[in-house]
Amino acid sequence: MYMKVCIIAAVSENNVIGNENKLPWRLSSDLMLFKKLTMGNTVVMGRKTYESIGKALPGRRNIVLSRNPKLKIKGCEVMPSLFETYKACASDDFVFIIGGAEIYTQAIKDADLLYLTRVHTTLEGDAFFPEIRTIDWMTVKLVNFRADEKNEFDFTFCELQRVR
């Protein structure tokens, strides 16, 4: 088996993923799905995404991408590029790309699986998920969630597999 590159993101109808380095919604059920999928695996994020989270995610190997060779982050490995990250993770089963926009744009061509939470709203934002060509992806799972006291908006969890 080879390493599978997985992208996991919550994306609004207009492809917003963030605003001012924060998630623009509160979706408790989505965060639980995120934790369940990524636990025990490697998560890869850009420095700004790490700063928005504020700490290494427990129970996971955390890799932060940065061009700064002097950057040290407690509980994280710092890598200069996705290429170096893939080499370092060659024996992993799954590597989850968790953001942000620049990292998603770089990784989309490498991804085997997309775990997209489609948040059913249109919002202002300053970080966007890259456009995906639907011809390249097959939907293998869809689960709908309704807004409630812990989930600000209706959303659909989508699992997509690259068509090779």
Question: What would you say this structure looks like, in words?
Answer:
The protein is α/β, with parallel strands linked by helices. The chain contains four helices and ten strands; from the N terminus they run E-E-H-E-H-E-E-H-E-H-E-E-E-E. Strands 5-4-3-6-1-7-10-9 form an eight-stranded mixed sheet. A two-stranded antiparallel ribbon has the order 2-8. It is globular and about 40 Å long. The protein starts with a strand and ends with a strand. The mean pLDDT is 96.
Provide key terms for this protein.
alpha/beta; Dihydrofolate Reductase, subunit A; single chain; globular; 4 helices; 34% strand; eight-stranded mixed β-sheet; 164 residues
